[in-house]
Amino acid sequence: MIQKYSIKELLKKGIFFLNQKVLVEGWIRSMRYSIFLSLNDGSTINHLQIVLSKYFKKEFLKKITIGTSIRVIGIIKKSIGKKQCIELHSTDIKIYQSVPTQIMQKSILQPKKHSIEKIREQSHLRFQTNIFGCIMRIRNNMSFSIHKYFYEKNFFYINTPIITTSDCEGAGKMFQVTSMDLNQNDIDYTKDFFKCKTYLSVSGQLEAEVAALGLGKVYTFGPVFRAENSNTSRHLSEFWMVEPEMAFFHLEENIHLAEDLIKFTIQYILDHCMDDLSFLNENIKKWNMEGEISLLEKLKYILKYPFKKISYTEVINILNQEKEKKNITFTHTIFWGMDLQSEHEQYLVNIYFKKRPLIIYNYPFCIKSFYMRVNDDGKTVKSMDILLPGIGEIIGGSQREERYEVLLTNIKNKSLDKKLLWWYLDTRRFGSVPHSGFGLGFDRFVQFMTGMKNIRDVIPFPRTPKNASF
Ligand code: 4AD
Ligand code: MG
Q1: Which of the four pLDDT bands, split at 50, 70 and 90, describes residue 291?
Q2: Model confidence at 304, in pLDDT bands (50, 70, 90)?
Q3: Do both 98 and 148 map to the same domain?
Q4: Residues 342, 348, 353, 359: what is their CA dihedral angle, to the nearest 10 degrees?
Q5: Tens digits of per-residue pLDDT, 317-335?
Q6: Are residues 94 and 140 in the same domain?
Q7: Domain count, the chain
Q8: For the sheet containing 163-164, what is the strand order?
Q9: To test the ligand 1 pocket, which listed residue (201, 444, 449, 459) has its Cβ within 8 A of the most ligand atoms?
Q10: Is there a domain that residue 117 lies in?
Q11: pTM listed for this prediction
Q12: Do 80 and 148 fall within a single domain?
């Protein structure tokens, strides 16, 4: 049997394969002089040059059009072309499906410039495009590197429920899950599938905390759902979150871990995905991504310095000073206790801190969730957000309130139902310990790594307000 190889394997080992008979499969990406084909199988951004045998009949060659899926058997030869070191001299080609030119012309796969929005409209075909292939391979490697990071640090990967009764963030932006007939009046949810109202989870944190209080160090990596009507380039209604949770961890250790995880993943991608990164780097202007510094420069810059750490109170002072000194106008008024808006975050990271990642800690209790540990001042909590240039918030985390009575008061102060959270509260009675964790928005991280402007272009099938196509 003739050995089958991916194009990535063949190109990686190159001349090692010289004069060997091999089998490859893929889609034809381009043709030159009716002799040379560029074949791609998705394993790499690079194409394998196929040299057509002069013995193929004309009728057969007519069916070999761009987009056609084929199986090729041939001999690997040294290429005299400058672009590649090896090529495949075909002896046998099997066509899986030939794509007529008129069909190809209507699709984003036709080899010409398409806008990123147009490519998104044909999300079912975009896996075959160069740009989306790069993004998906980088996404895959990022996901692997995150698992690798935690595995090497002795964390346990746990799976938290997707269907839940509790609203972790308390923002009330949840999708309801029911098997009831919604056409009837006065729905009685005690007769629903789970005997109560249930929702799609906005975060696996509460369950991860419970696990950490027995296993020590755990993390989740799963989909979360938010029914917020935010139609921005950084919001999805269904997105993926990485949520580590550590017993015996204080806020400072939590912050350190978060910065380390981000840097580890960036370094991993620089080490393992240079072909894909280089393609994105070169095409940055074409795709209208980041402007001033290149993608590669940006990633290396992030690795170079420690992230800036600054308290929320200092942030408010800076914003007020900047407003007065430099006459900067913000749409939202600045006062202690306000939620930082995108315009403030952008100003701080992109301008004031010159594109250095920023860690803001000790936010006011009034704008944060019930589970965060209250500081001695009684007004602020041991929280932290990490902001990246161009993206804004990528991580939200905190040290958790481990004291039963204080947690109970927080639940009351936030008008939450303590009956629903009985199990969470109960963990604070059985050897409660200081513990911390955070949530990293995985899709936003992929956006940062690939330089894409819109989060819809880094996830295969984006779910956003008024859109659940595909
Ligand atoms: O700040 P958030 O809401 O934090 C939590 O959910 C905590 N329970 C996490 C924890 O401590 N375990 O969300 C965490 C991150 C944000 O920083 C952001 O990167 C991302 O999730 N995120 C979104 N990403 C895409 N689309 C959305 N609609 C997002 N909302 C939050
Ligand atoms: Mg947040």
Answers
A1: low
A2: very high
A3: no
A4: -70
A5: 999 999 989 888 899 999 9
A6: no
A7: 2
A8: 163-164, 198-200, 176-177
A9: 444
A10: no
A11: 0.96
A12: no
Nearest residue CA, atom 18 of ligand 1?
Answer: 441
For the cut 60, the answer to whether the pLDDT of residue 99 exceeds it is yes
Residues 185 and 334 in one domain: yes
- Nearest CA to 146 out of 465, 449, 453, 460 is that of 449
- Going by C-alpha positions, the residue among 260, 283, 301 that lies closest to residue 389 is 301
Is the residue at 385 inside a domain?
yes
Q: Is 389:355 a contact under the CB 8 Å cutoff?
A: yes
Query: Could you read off the pLDDT of 266-275 as tens digits, one per residue?
Result: 999 999 999 9
CATH for 25: 2.40.50.140
**Beta-carbon contacts of residue 36 (< 8 Å; ≥ 6 apart):** 49, 50, 51, 52
Instruction: Please tell me whether residues 92 and 134 are part of one structural domain.
Output: no
In this structure, are 215 and 68 located in the same domain? no
Residues with a CB atom less than 6 Å from ligand 1: 168-169, 203, 205, 226, 235-236, 239, 241, 243, 393-397, 437-439, 441, 443-444
Residue-number span of the structural domain to which 222 is assigned = 128-457
**Which ligand is nearest to the Cα of residue 205, counting in written order?**
1
The closest residue, in CA terms, to atom 22 on ligand 1 is: 441
Residue type, 111: P
Residue 462 domain-assigned?
no
Ligand 2: centre distance to CA 333 (Å): 20
Which residue has the CA at smallest separation from atom 30 of ligand 1?
235
Q: Which of 239, 242, 445, 457 to mutate to test the pocket of ligand 1 (most atoms within 8 A of CB)?
A: 239
CA of 358 to the centre of ligand 2 (A): 14
- List the residue whose alpha carbon is closest to atom 27 of ligand 1: 235
Residue 168 Cα to ligand 1 middle (Å):
11
